[in-house]
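Summary for the steering committee. One of the milestones for this cycle was to obtain a three-dimensional model of the protein with acetyl coenzyme *A bound, which we needed before selecting residues for the alanine scan. The sequence and ligand used are listed below.
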Amino acid sequence: MASQTVVVDRADDDERFLATDLLVWFDEPESAPTATQLEGVPPDQRFAARVEDGAHDPATYPGIYGVRPMQLSVPYAGGGRWVPMAGLTWVGVHPDHRRRGVLTEMLRHHVEQTHREGVAVSGLHASEAAIYGRHGWGLASQSTTLSLGRGTTFTAPGLDETAAATTTRLATETGDDLVRRTIECEQRVGEHQPGSVVGDEGYYRAVLRESPERLRDKEPRRMLFAVRDGVDVGLAAFRRTHKWEQHRPQGTLEVHALFGDPATRLALLRRLVDFDLMATVKLPETALDDPLWSWLGPRAASDVLPADNLWVRLVDLPAALPLRSYAADCDVVVDLVDPYAPWHAGRWRVVVDAGEGRAERTDAAADVELPVWALGAAYLGGGNLLAHQRAGLLPDAPAVGELWRAFRTDLPPATAIGF
Ligand SMILES: CC(=O)SCCNC(=O)CCNC(=O)[C@H](O)C(C)(C)COP(=O)(O)OP(=O)(O)OC[C@H]1O[C@@H](n2cnc3c(N)ncnc32)[C@H](O)[C@@H]1OP(=O)(O)O
């Protein structure tokens, strides 16, 4: 198809924004007011692409995207630390305009806009894994989904006492009370777990809202909080589905999110595999080094499916590097390839000294040329640069190993929510 001139700017028409999203995702329209449906993406963070040559449907935009103001937990002093992240979401291109560069222009706009707003990192969950790598996002955390049978045994002698001292109770709060309790709990837990993401109140109102059209005959989502010493230390969000086979209950309990330190996860998991009338517990986005694998052994789970989790793009290297701490010293000159960001592309001296990182402009000869996705992948300590080098995706230069030894973390990052 012929290319087209694409201009991206604020989306000034909420109805049109929503209509575009409905067309892209072919969802049933909801009865809730438009403002409620758009909650979690602030009005000044809704963007639309317009094409300047050719007619298009006035009720929709050729393309839309939104940004959630979020916090990302980055590796810091053996734990984590919250830093601002632009959470890219609601990306969609009208079916009549696809594969003609609308997404490409929207992502270029997003990178510029994020930089203008002084945010160094953009993150997203992708609908399809092949989309974002070519635009500079690197796969920063990976996970698996899996299923467990009812009554699964978890063997964790060193954590039994703490898990037993952890009470699990279904939340009785609703509305804003539940939103506040959930945010506070996720902030408390995620700060110690690099790769965690939390949103603002609007985001939590949006994810905790369940419209009648989406719910139909399903059980409303239940929130199970884990409490220790009077403090919320974790939670599991889940829903159950009935099923009967030959007079025997074969229900499925599907977990949507699971937060907590290892002893808390143990307490929550023991409770989740013990609900009446269930035969199967489906777990979401479980990190590759989740303690679960040590408690179970690899064969106790079924339907194990690896997936990409959080994709990270750096939009400002000198601002992003000092935000986290590092495992080893390094001093290399990187020639950064970033076609979307002239302020970013070119040679940087990347230095880590006593755990602190920085990047400064240099005219020195480059030790390695790196695509911007590589630093996004490694930023949380998860995307192994040496493995990418071995796979032929990065240049065969010693500087890649030096960078990786600085960026890597003892445990890979884990991201528990999608957005
Ligand atoms: C963070 C999020 O919100 S994830 C949600 C993403 N949205 C969706 O999946 C909704 C359904 N899909 C769509 O709306 C569109 O097909 C999009 C947004 C995925 C792509 O939009 P388009 O305008 O068609 O993309 P565009 O023409 O800019 O393509 C850019 C490049 O990405 C490639 N590409 C686009 N979509 C895909 C895909 N689904 N899989 C693999 N490659 C893709 C194109 O081939 C093109 O490659 P090239 O530069 O080598 O030629």
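Key point for the committee: The mean pLDDT is 96.
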